[in-house]
Fold:
Amino acid sequence: METRKSVFLSIAVSYFCIFYVSSVKASLSFDFYEASCPQVELIIRNAVSSSSSDDPSIPGKLLRMVFHDCFVEGCDASLMLQGNNTEQSDPGNRSVGGFSVIESAKRVLEVFCPGTVSCADIIALAARDAVEIAGGPRIRIPLGRRDGMVSIASNVRPNIVDTSFTMDEMVKLFATKGLSLLDLVILSGAHTIGTAHCNTFRGRFQQDAQGNLKLIDQTLDTNYANQLMKRCPVNAQPFVTVNIDPETSMLFDNQYYRNVLAHRVLFQSDSVLLSDNKTRQIVEDFANDRKLFFDNWAVAFVKLTSVGVKTDEEGEIRRTCAATNV
Structure:
């Protein structure tokens, strides 16, 4: 009960921080496009919904995209820029998908509201809608982000979570983004949907003298490990993927936290949530209460999509998301 109270207290503090940030960033507001492009949210939602109907993996891709964008250069669509040595060219981003959904929404918006809606806002709204379409909560996020003009591959690795990270490494990285330990546990819940390539968790296994994989990470459930080795043998093709949530892979719910407790999670960075008493208790709370997770998610997602935002005269409103205007 005491831990539950501390979680709710953290929520209250988080809400205070969010509205404080919004008041400082005068151009970031919930009604930013009310006069200039009132149909913006409908257009983006239609693009996400249509794409998700054709490809059920889209929600997971869009949710991953917002993390990889916001953690590098802030939430400014720097990930969308194409070219040599841009963020997209870093190996950590080569498997990020969903770009066509953002570009599709942008093309429609340029017809109805030319030069008005940033690619950064489209990414944030598309990820928000992806969560709801996959069964998660619908939340409001403030808008008014502008697009960045810098995208450098060497900025990626120091600013994104590696799947082999320890708890301390994750805490330090999240802290640089203004995100707390509670935010870390909440946002890890994004792994309730999506897929991952075999190489992202290969470090939990080792190849023996006969060329077969064997489990070396004893924090992983043995039966689950055997399933993974069958799906991802040594000679698995690079395009082979595994559902991150083995139970409800297409549904945004709190199953991820149950998987953590059952030691049935793909990444070491997920397993380490049990290595700290504070994070373990929060994991248990979320595993037992979907509404508690959803309420917390609403707060943490707003914080995530407010990381390093550019507003006012910073950046630009791109005409196309793949290139700057100059």
